[in-house]
Amino acid sequence: MADRKGKFVRVKCSKCKASQTIFGKASTKVRCLECSTVLAIPSGGNAKIRSRVEEVL
Ligand SMILES: [Zn+2]
Fold it and tell me: Fewer CB in a 10 Å sphere around the end CB: N or C, the chain?
């Protein structure tokens, strides 16, 4: 998944299976709204997605 377009991505929390749309270039940690699992961490350009990407929007 190196070639991510970097807009919004819909991810699925690996823990509670909740879907959440997050900004692909998040500059802060993104946590699941349901269980606070970290879904993405900032890494310069695109955020590193730590959960399963369902769709790039
Ligand atoms: Zn969750």
Answer: N
